[in-house]
């Protein structure tokens, strides 16, 4: 059950929302489409669902031409940010809806539908809520029902567009963990659109980073974080420092710091994560801007070659003892070198 997207382009009024995008979603995989607003995530998801058509390119599912099929024939389940439940139907009827509207030949019997609904209510941990109406549920509960409704038809592909976007941060975090568990239980190939990097990194097996209608990189969360393919990806996935550098004779040199590197010779960008910097007697020269203790942690803001960086440290870390105005030298324990063209 592999979804293969080949060289998709979609233009609106001559402006490309998607520009030559190719992507493979593997069988049983949880893949996130992550990118800033307007980067083309929803457009790509809608093309997968059959709600929109590309101007050029192919979409194949297990080798079958997906573009020749209607949304219903594709058998995809969808969940959107807005709950989109039927207000006049109970939770159980909402979940059963996709099965009840099937043509007679493929429609399961009443008892079978009731059993499926019971199983799904158990899966979404709302066993006793089948008789309620959507207005009697919290936002998080409604989204769980929306997911059960999408799963009821036993979709070949589950497409989620910012499903937790309208919920508060705490509920989002809980639902995120829960959704990952549901994915592990059902094994349905899933594509999630989000602009929340934490959500993508925590939930997905692989993440595709979109920017201005193009895919910048597709990789596991760890690889994206540690080995970004471009300055954009490094910057987009959390706090980081990017410094001009040069690679020559097996060494990367930036400002007052150098280290062995097997990166290609030439101008480069040195990418560093704040957690990889440690106080040392040599390394990059900076100055402490502020320091705030909270319990056994300290947040130390450092200015380093014109960039402000927040460092989260244990109170017994040497950095935590510094005061605003103190000079500091920071040594990158780990770093990533990008060729200048990236
Ligand atoms: N129906 C439309 N008509 C014209 N332009 C559109 C239409 N739908 C999307 N676009 C444009 O295509 C580009 C990509 O939009 P899309 O909704 O796919 O982005 P997105 O990454 O999902 O953004 P967001 O995170 O804000 O939802 C944007 O520049 C948008 O303005």
UniProtKB/TrEMBL annotation:
One of its GO terms (molecular function) is ATP binding. Pfam families: ABC_tran (PF00005), TOBE_2 (PF08402). InterPro entries: AAA+_ATPase, ABC_SmlMolc_Importer, ABC_transporter-like_ATP-bd, ABC_transporter-like_CS, Mo/tungstate-bd_C_term_dom, P-loop_NTPase, Sulph_transpt1, Transp-assoc_OB_typ2. Residues 3-237 form the ABC transporter domain. It comes from the Bacteria. Keywords: ATP-binding, Nucleotide-binding, Sulfate transport, Translocase, Transport. The keyword Lipoprotein does not apply. Transmembrane segments: none annotated. This is Sulfate/molybdate ABC transporter ATP-binding protein. It comes from Brevundimonas pondensis.
